[in-house]
Amino acid sequence: MISQIFILSSKGDHLIYKDCILTAGLQICYALFCLCLHLLILLQSHKGLHFIHARQDGLYWVASTKTNPSPFTIIEFLNRLAALTKDYCGSLSEKSVRMNFALIYELLDEMVDFGYIQTTSTDILKNFIQTEAVSSKPFSLFDLSNVGLFGAETQQSKVAPSVAASRPIMSSRGEQGGKNEIFVDVIARLSVVIGSKGVLMKADIQGEIRIKCFLPTCSGELSVSFCSSGYSSAVRVDECRFHQAVKLDEFDTFRILKVCPSQGEQTVMQYQLCDELPCAPPFQLFPSVEKDYVNRSVNLSMVLIFLKLRCDLPPKSTALNVSITVPVPKGSTSMSQELSSPDQTAELQPKNKALLWEIPRFPGGAQLSALFKVDVPGLSSASLLEVGPVSMSFELPKQTCTGLQIRFLRLSPTQTGLSQRWVRYVTHSDSYTIRI
Description:
Layout: E1 4-8, E2 14-19, H1 28-37, E3 43-46, E4 49-56, E5 59-65, H2 71-89, H3 94-99, H4 101-111, E6 112-113, E7 116-117, H5 122-125, E8 139-140, E9 181-194, E10 200-213, E11 221-228, E12 236-237, E13 239-242, H6 251-254, E14 256-259, E15 264-274, E16 283-295, E17 300-311, E18 318-327, E19 334-339, E20 345-349, E21 354-363, E22 367-377, E23 390-397, E24 404-412, E25 420-434
Parallel strand pairs: 9-25
Antiparallel strand pairs: 1-2, 1-5, 3-4, 4-5, 6-7, 8-12, 9-10, 10-15, 11-14, 11-24, 13-15, 16-17, 17-22, 18-21, 18-23, 19-22, 20-21, 23-25
Keywords: Coated pit, Membrane, Protein transport, Transmembrane, Transmembrane helix, Transport
Domain MHD: 179-435
Protein name: AP-4 complex subunit mu-1-like
């Protein structure tokens, strides 16, 4: 008999929760996540309940039971539930589960009755399921069959504002010299969760294209043409929204957006990419955490934290203002460090209960390391669990993590005196988390 059924995100957030026999609370969901996922075990018991989980496409499909059934039966049921969800929703992702929660609850009601599995047959279930699935199929900027999805009236914007990406682009000659110029900014904000074994667990890219105009008169029309970085492969985008002034009449054939730029800055396009990255994550971390005694007689001990950080950008690229924050045990009093280069800095922040490691410039393909010795009086083995997860912030100039490129900028009719048109690509870290 099944007591509870959960569908959890990669972070442990509950997406679907069904209490089949109405005897347990929702807080068991979070206890399960700590036990089964952080300890990396498939079967576990907690407060009289046995937990069984399976992982499919980055989601955790979980069942609890008070009886002692065959665990392989429950695992087979969870795998079948994941397969049915994919059949009905079209894809398995956190987004598709959230969009089709009513359909999934209806499936569970038909599949399980008071904890007992009734059926997992698609032929039987299709006679009872009435809820229509909401499609979350991604589309391509260069797929002609999906161009109709680009209408500004049908797309929803979920791009959050970012202070880090709102810095104005200035000419090298300053504000006074920046006349008769047009600047185009392709900005991406990257959110990533990487597991303790280096596996990408969650990825999200929110981007926008901004135009900043310094023309004395803006009576003309600016044409912006898009392409992928390789001019062949398509750029995948899950959601997209255009400014109301953008014209799409030439997008079907030439992939051109037309806009009448006004003085100042305006966002002409916002887009979002979920669940996966077109390229490898820019950073990989190889951590090691150990306990060491300074004086056993007075129980004076320390935590040894060794971090090896690798930048997987191309060799000619550079990451700027890289900051690594590592939570440390609550009782930490002082810290010493050994850094691999003199331009790096590190400090212990007792108020934040974390150590901060800062790297001004990080070349692509390079690898840096650091050893931190954190003094923690009365350190216990359980205190080591307080170390991590690691969070990073950085800026990647001249990089676009989606592969989106500007092919050309054209102003028509041609205006005399227009001297320069600038394009800048930049990627900011919105949330970059690495579990230890």
